[in-house]
Structure formats: C-alpha cells, structure tokens
Amino acid sequence: MREAAEPTERERDPRAVSKFVEGFAAQLVEAGMQRMPARVFAALLSSDSGALTSAELGERLQVSPAAVSGAVRYLAQQHMVSREREPGSRRERYRVHSDQWYEALTNREAIIKRWESALREGVTSLGADTPAGRRLAETLAFFEFVDEEIAAMMERWRIHREKRFGHG
C-alpha cells in the first residue's frame, strides 16, 4: 500500500494539470517560444513517463495531429525532445529528457560560436578602429564572455545535479 504520497498520473486532477501546462506554456511563449511547441513541451514535461504519442498529446491539448507534428518538429530541432519508436509498433513517442535544458543551452552554444566567427570577420572587414568595427568587437567580446560563462555554468550544473539527484 502506498503511503500518503503524491498522486499518480491517473489520480491527478486533469484541470489542475491542464492549468499548469497552459500556465507554463504561457511563460515559455512570453520568453519567445512559439505557442504550440510550448504547450507540447509543457505537456511532455508534466507526464510521469516524460513520453507521449502524438494521439496522447492531441487528446491532452485538444489539438490536431498536424499541430502536434509541427510542434514536435520544432522541439526536436531545438534538442528539447526526441522521437522514439514504440516497441513492435510504427507509432512514435516523443520524449523530453531530464537534461533538456542542458541540451538546449549546448545547442545555443554552437550558434554563439557561429556568431563569434561572423563577428570576427565583420571586425576585420570594417576595421577594428572604425566606429562600426569597435561596435562589432564589443558584440564579439560579449558573445565570447557568454560562451565562457555557459561552459563554466554547465560544469557547475553537472556537479550540482550529481549531488542533488545522484546522476550525471
């Protein structure tokens, strides 16, 4: 018999879960994410398994399979979810991983590196002593700083995560 623990997914109030999903999705939209990917991500994050089929997502969010498909495609490109086949089935499940934030930031790190390269080229093209060249050099220095800080922060996160949750 279970102790007076947290309710299982079946025992939870669906309205309360929906309120969380929509509220967290609204926060993600406010931060710049598209609405449907935000809703799908929040629904996956709030499921005990962390994985749902397109049909399950459509049912939970009351949206069409096409809306789910587009959202999942975007989230996969951002390294926030992965696709996996159900054993013995052609159906795909979409999974959010416990390290999705790490993966998303790591993906951003690669983008920052490309921006740094382009900015270096811009500084060279415009001349480091021109007003535009100095502006690009300062922008480049900012991204170099951010890149270093993200790397250091992610290392601190790995240590913190290991201590708190027992896995790296």
Task: Walk me through what this model shows.
InterPro entries: HTH-GbsR_regulator, HTH_MarR-typ, WH-like_DNA-bd_sf, WH_DNA-bd_sf. The chain has 168 residues and is mostly helical. The chain folds into two domains: 14-95, Orthogonal Bundle (Arc Repressor Mutant, subunit A); 100-165. The chain is built from six helices and three strands. Strand 2 (82-85) and strand 3 form a beta hairpin. Helix 1 (14-30) crosses helix 2, helix 3 (54-61) packs across helix 4 (65-77) and helix 5 runs antiparallel to helix 6 (131-165). The longest helix is centred in the C-terminal third of the chain and has 35 residues, at 131-165.
List keywords for this structure.
168 residues; mainly alpha; Arc Repressor Mutant, subunit A; 3-stranded antiparallel β-sheet; 6 helices; 3 strands; 7% strand; elongated; WH-like_DNA-bd_sf; DNA binding
Structural class: mainly alpha
Mean pLDDT: 87
Instruction: Kindly report the name of the CATH homologous superfamily of the largest domain.
Output: Winged helix-like DNA-binding domain superfamily/Winged helix DNA-binding domain
**Unreliable segments of 5+ consecutive residues:** none
Number of DSSP strand runs: 3
- The whole-angstrom Rg is 21 Å
List the total number of helices: 6
CATH arch. level architecture of the largest domain:
Orthogonal Bundle
Shape call:
elongated
Q: How much helix is in the residues?
A: 55-70%
CATH level 1 name of the largest domain: Mainly Alpha
Task: Encode the helix/strand succession as letters.
Answer: HHEHHEEHH
Tell me the span between the first and last alpha carbons.
32 Å
Task: State the strand order across the main sheet.
Answer: 1-3-2
How many domains, as an integer? 2
In percent, how much strand structure appears in the residues?
5-15%
Strand count, sense and closure of the main sheet?
3 strands, antiparallel
CATH topology of the largest domain: Arc Repressor Mutant, subunit A
InterPro entries: HTH-GbsR_regulator (IPR052362), HTH_MarR-typ (IPR000835), WH-like_DNA-bd_sf (IPR036388), WH_DNA-bd_sf (IPR036390)
Keywords: DNA-binding, Transcription, Transcription regulation
Pfam families: MarR_2
GO molecular function: DNA binding; DNA-binding transcription factor activity
